[in-house]
Amino acid sequence: MSFWEYLSTRHQQLLTDAFQHASAVFQCMVIATLLGVLIAVVAYRSGWGGSLAISSTATILTIPSLAAIGLLIPLVGLGVAPTVITLTLYGLLPIVRNAIVGLRGVDPALVDAATGIGMSRTARLCRVELPLAWPPILTGIRVSTQMLMGIAAIAAYASGPGLGNEIFRGIASLGSANAINQVLAGTLGIVVLALLFDAAYVLLGRLTIPRGIRA
């Protein structure tokens, strides 16, 4: 069976796996973004605090993803839970680092001006600092998403959702008629999803970042 014939006979299952893969990555990115920005907001004013936040999240990436999922299985079981925890933790570093860089890069004169007109610290953060730091934060989100697209395939090891199941089935049946087709379909599906997500982030950046800041 050729690759195109395989796609035509398995397209429903592949679309389901692709949707689950994209959904898992998207939901984990939302959680990682909220946590990452919160960590950056707490840490960016302190030199050692920022270094600690970046070092801690960087340390997570030194743990092999397969090992991380394997260690979580006895604690939270198989399926969605170890997938969500692993992807969220692995997505933190680029967001935390870029958010800290972005917040520290805000012009102090603008913050002083906001203080001078009576803005509270929370108002300054939400209305001045975070909007100006949004471009680097968005870049961090894009990097994290590309990372998680590939890491999410490992979730199949813990019976997680996504295109990794197609890849693992192909690897497990190497030598059979459709083994290469399965691996290729899963891999290409992940690449296509990564490109679609990145295109969506480019569009989001054009809609949310003023032209002057982009320039």
Automatic annotation (TrEMBL):
Limits of the ABC transmembrane type-1 domain: 18-201
Transmembrane segments: 24-44, 51-73, 179-204
Pfam families in the record: BPD_transp_1
Organism of this sequence: Streptomyces rhizosphaericola
Keyword flag Transmembrane helix: yes
PANTHER family named among the record's database cross-references: GLYCINE BETAINE/L-PROLINE TRANSPORT SYSTEM PERMEASE PROTEIN PROW (PTHR30177), OSMOPROTECTANT IMPORT PERMEASE PROTEIN OSMW (PTHR30177:SF4)
Location (main, coarse): membrane
Family: Belongs to the binding-protein-dependent transport system permease family.
UniProt KW keywords: Membrane, Transmembrane, Transmembrane helix, Transport
Cellular compartment(s): Cell membrane; Membrane
Protein name, as recorded: ABC transporter permease
Bilayer disposition of the protein: Multi-pass membrane protein
